[in-house]
Automatic annotation (TrEMBL):
InterPro entries membership: FAD/NAD-bd_sf, FAD/NAD-binding_dom, FAD/NAD-linked_Rdtase_dimer_sf, FCSD_central, FlavoCytC_S_DH_flav-bd, FlavoCytC_S_DH_flav-bd_sf, SQRD, TAT_signal
Domain FAD/NAD(P)-binding: 40-142
E.C. designation(s): 1.8.2.-
Protein keywords: FAD, Flavoprotein, Oxidoreductase
Gene3D superfamilies: FAD/NAD(P)-binding domain (3.50.50.60), Flavocytochrome c sulphide dehydrogenase, flavin-binding domain (3.90.760.10)
GO terms, molecular function: flavin adenine dinucleotide binding; oxidoreductase activity
Domain Flavocytochrome c sulphide dehydrogenase flavin-binding: residue ranges: 362-431
Domain Sulfide dehydrogenase [flavocytochrome c] flavoprotein chain central: 172-287
Name of the protein this chain belongs to: Sulfide dehydrogenase (Flavocytochrome), flavoprotein subunit
PANTHER family for this protein: FAD-DEPENDENT PYRIDINE NUCLEOTIDE-DISULPHIDE OXIDOREDUCTASE, PTHR43755
Length: 437
């Protein structure tokens, strides 16, 4: 069980609402790097990792030419998409654009799909037919789903039993299904094996859907079928579910027959490892995951489906001059989170600018905080600080920890407030999004 190792005031002071201060001051980009030594960097992917990398390359050295390739004109974040499902926030709250990158920082933003990478020629081919030459390439591809990893669950099935694990239209589909479900219905969520994007995400999701049910469909039930026996912030979630929702949420771990092995989306039915069948009124399947498509096309993934990187710089271990950040990487014990992608991107930007200037990259330090809301005004968190120790990414001894289990009501309310502050701060740090009120 995770235990707090520093108090909350110390943790919040260390990590900051956005994580930007630690990352910026800790990187110590040489002034010489800011003054000269420029090149062309292509960044693929406009999420937490890619947008941050593009922005901070220009901040560290405005002379660097940066092209950001992103298919969509807006990015919807997975963080806070559960708040949308729970009826607490609207979709517009988690939508972000690229105006600040384009207009304030001078990033050339191209809305197209990166279809291929030629590492030998230092070239990216786009869906428009255009080919972009680069000196350095940053990939922030996020995740793709392993459609062969769970029997019966593919892209067509996801239109009937949504995953909603990439925010946007899938989130809207799941919310519509929840709203259409009759009171007294059964919602089933299938939680995946490790590793996957946002480790606390499935557990926050059932919390906030339970909140919605409590308000609008109080006779309904939630069954959480899990491929694991342990999950992030487990004691805190279990305590919160009991306090707010009684027996509405039932969690079944892998050893108790919680591992789903097959899905019948037409019947909204799942089969577990021991042969039990469960039929839902609304079925939410979070499928197995792997690195995003362009990472595989670039040839930087390994047999695990994820991307090995050099710990100090996040440059690919397999192809020179290609850097990879975010959920696609093998960076444990750092979780696959938006906060980590943002922090990794700053380290990559620093490493590239330093190399252009002929300097060694400064020592890297990353931090992460994952807030989860169990009910309005009731938040919990887990935090960590990481650096390279003996050639590997490791958690700094004595850093981080989880919210104390015995915390009082006022503490939980502050954590809920910190969650909002964190989200709004990191959104501004990444895309320049500014919130009203």
């Amino acid at each position: 069980m995770e235990q707090p190792r520093i108090n909350r005031r110390q943790a919040l002071g260390l990590l900051g609402a956005a994580g930007a201060v630690t990352a910026m001051t800790g990187l110590g980009v040489p002034m010489a790097a800011r003054a000269g030594g420029a090149g062309h960097v292509v960044v693929v992917g406009g999420g937490f990792g890619g947008a941050t990398a593009a922005k901070f390359l220009k901040r560290f050295n405005p002379a660097v030419e940066v092209t950001l390739v992103e298919a969509s004109e807006h990015f919807y974040t997975c963080p806070f998409s559960n708040w949308y499902l729970g009826g607490i926030k609207e979709m517009a709250y988690i939508r972000h654009g690229y105006d600040e990158l384009r207009e304030h920082y001078g990033v050339h933003v191209v809305h197209a799909t990166a279809e291929d990478v030629d590492g030998d020629r230092h070239e990216v081919r786009l869906s428009t037919g255009e080919r972009l030459r680069y000196d350095k390439l940053v990939l922030s591809p996020g995740i793709d789903f392993d459609w062969d990893g769970l029997a019966g669950y593919d892209e067509a099935a996801a239109e009937k039993a949504p995953h909603a694990w990439k925010a946007g239209e899938q989130s809207r589909l799941l919310r519509r299904q929840l709203e259409a479900m009759e009171d007294g219905g059964l919602f089933i969520l299938r939680a995946p094996e490790n590793p996957f994007r946002c480790p606390p995400g499935p557990y926050e999701r059932v919390s906030l859907i339970a909140h919605y049910f409590k308000q609008h469909k109080p006779r309904s039930k939630i069954l959480l079928l899990d491929a694991k026996d342990n999950f992030s912030k487990q004691p805190l979630f279990l305590d919160g579910w009991a306090e707010f929702y009684g027996d509405m949420i039932e969690w079944v771990g892998a050893s108790q027959d919680g591992r789903v092995v097959a899905v019948d989306a037409d019947r909204r039915e799942v089969e577990t490892e021991f042969g039990t069948r469960h039929r839902a009124d609304v079925l939410n399947v979070v499928p197995p995951q792997k690195a995003g498509f362009i990472a595989r096309r670039a040839g930087v993934t390994d047999a695990s489906g994820w991307v090995p990187v050099k710990p100090q710089t996040f440059e690919s271990t397999q192809i020179e001059d290609i850097y990879v950040v975010g959920d696609a990487t093998i960076a444990a014990p750092m979780p696959k989170s938006g906060f980590c992608a943002n922090a990794q991107a700053k380290v990559v930007a620093s490493a590239i600018v330093s190399e252009f200037a002929g300097h060694a990259p400064p020592p890297a330090v990353w931090n992460n905080t994952c807030y989860s809301l169990i009910a309005p005004g009731y938040g919990i968190s887990v935090a960590g600080v990481y650096k390279v120790i003996d050639g590997h990414i490791a958690e700094v001894p004595g850093s981080g920890g989880v919210s104390p289990r015995e915390a009082d009501e006022a503490f939980r309310a502050r954590e809920a407030e910190y969650a909002v502050n964190w989200y709004e701060a990191i959104s501004e740090d990444t895309w320049g999004t500014r919130f009203r009120g």
